[in-house]
Amino acid sequence: MPFTQEAAEFLRPLLNTEQDPHALRTVIAAFTSYCSAEEVRAILVHADHTDPGVRHCVASGLASYYRFVTADHPDVVATLLRLAEDPLPETRVTALYAFTRSPIDAPELRGVLAAHLADQHLDARIEAAAALALRDDERGLSALDEIRCGIKNHRSPGAGRLNDINHLLRA
Fold first, then answer.
1. Which of 19, 52, 165, 169 is most buried per CB count within 10 Å?
2. Per-domain residue ranges for the chain?
């Protein structure tokens, strides 16, 4: 894509200087659209921002670089584990989703995922169960079966994502 490097270079300093949360969310989203996988670490400093939307943008940005969520990048993994505990359900879901796409497997991760099997937010439970199931953890498969039993039809909340997960598990 033309001007990708130039765009990332323009946006990177704004990550450190922008004070307005709305503008910072925009900068993070734009930066993660243009930056390289190595450069995505520049957004980690905003993972504990007071604005929930900023934290969600960080989780979204990291989730888009799921191949970077590996043991070789413990700072990224640790940030996503913290974001998986965020009070905003959408941020938790996005952080957990990153682990459904990541190859990393560790006891600490499985513990966090297992804890989210009891999350009050259905989408967070689905992502946690999917991440466990994709790691051949029986707790995830059982939770997915339980969630599937509560789905009444294809329009029920979570039905589409469960269908996607079923395809991933069969692949």
1. 165
2. 1-104, 106-171
